[in-house]
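Most newcomers find our protein records easier to grasp once they have seen one. A record pairs a protein's sequence with a compact description of its fold. An example says more than a description, so a record of this kind follows:
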Amino acid sequence: MTNDSEALTGADAGSDIDWDAEAASFDDEPDHGLRDPEVRRAWAGRLGDWLPGRSSDVLDLGCGTGSLSLLAAEQGHRVTGVDASPAMVERARAKLAGRDAVFLVGDAAAPPVGEQRFDVVLVRHVLWALPDPGRALRHWRGLLRPGGRLVLIEGVWGTVTPAGIPAGTLAGLVEPLAEEVRVEPLSQDAVLWGRPVEDERYAVVALV
């Protein structure tokens, strides 16, 4: 694990990636495309634990090609996905064609949803790439209805030049915004990633 300043500095690397160019091969990663039935079941199980048991409005920020959006829709939720990459959004729309889902091109840190409010803000591997995670979290908190929740899946990747946000740092940013915060380690669950991993991966689930 790296220290907090190194992790947050490493996050700047996310802004250098051409996500439109990455869209065609994005789903090749086991935890992106969820093409392996075992990986898909593992993520569906986790999402079932993190999301409300009733049908809810879920805002999937940095939705990529919509793999988690699809799992949420399959569990009966209404999904709005936002991604800055038009190519990613195009693939997400195709993946969820016919589902109760809408996908928008926009900034995950300030999604273009107007006055709409949600029961869940779901974010996977996005905060590490933002210049001001705390500001984004405060904005996302304002997009939730009373009793809503933040579901934040993050980590610290790499050992030479680590990039990411340690669990303790993210939990500290979320705690002032929530009534209850739970950190769930994910590194040990190799099925989620399609292989064993040694770096820090986790979810923070915050009830507001």
The radius of gyration is 16 Å.
